[in-house]
């Protein structure tokens, strides 16, 4: 079991599965949504994710048709994204986890549109678009 919460602590959650892969997304939308060089996320099963507190504080923004980014309406912490075409899965923002993880599989996607000032300094697989 993994746990996590937003910056202000209003929203907390439990995840009843292991994280097997971290995806570093370098697309422009993820950079803008996080205010950083890339988004760090893990694909999880929606039915293994449980909100423990703060459901009323969750806000949603549709960044493109059918893609919804959920975040804390108080502190702005991005929590996860959901897609209408994949209701069984979420993309959890792993920076909100309390529990340490270190999955062996880590990949970069959309590196063709990464920030010009960013240098990738690891040996993880890199994909110009999605994988």
UniProtKB/TrEMBL annotation:
Any one Gene Ontology molecular-function term assigned to this protein's record: carbon-sulfur lyase activity
Q: Where is the CENP-V/GFA domain?
A: 2-118
Q: Which Pfam families match?
A: GFA
Query: Is Endoplasmic reticulum among the key words of this record?
Result: no
Keyword field: Lyase, Metal-binding, Zinc
In the UniProt record, does the keyword Cell division occur?
Answer: no
State the superkingdom. Answer: Bacteria
Q: Which InterPro entries match?
A: CENP-V/GFA, Mss4-like_sf
The family classification in the record reads: Belongs to the Gfa family.
Cite the PANTHER family for this sequence. Answer: CENP-V_GFA DOMAIN-CONTAINING PROTEIN-RELATED (PTHR33337:SF40), GFA DOMAIN-CONTAINING PROTEIN (PTHR33337)
Q: What is this protein called?
A: Aldehyde-activating protein
Q: Which organism is it from?
A: Leminorella grimontii
